[in-house]
Write a structure and sequence with these properties.
Elements: H1 3-9, H2 38-50, H3 66-88
Helix pairs in contact: 2-3
Length: 91
């Protein structure tokens, strides 16, 4: 592989930032307002995991009625938002 090609396929970010133990607290967020501890975060994760089958009652019914489809889409969106929020606060 030529040197120019290596530069094109190489990561464009500073690899040193991925090294273990390197942490720049200047750019860290304090997420304790949302999850005061790792236990609180893990508890929320378990709650979401327990609700993962929330769409099961809609199985086979989504094409029957627009209201059922809308309710399923809204529930899926809300669940996705909660999970994304939880994912951003990984301790």
């Amino acid at each position: 592989m030529t040197r120019a090609l290596e530069r094109l396929v190489a990561p464009s970010y500073d690899v040193r930032a991925d090294e273990a133990g390197v942490e720049d607290t200047q750019f860290s967020w304090d997420l304790t307002e949302f999850y005061p501890s790792k236990v609180a975060w893990a508890s929320e994760l378990e709650r979401l995991r327990s609700e993962v089958d929330f769409l099961a009652p809609c199985a086979g019914k989504l094409g029957d009625d627009a209201a059922i489809l809308l309710a399923a889409l809204e529930a899926n969106s809300a669940y996705g938002c909660e999970f994304a929020w939880l994912e951003t606060g990984v301790p």
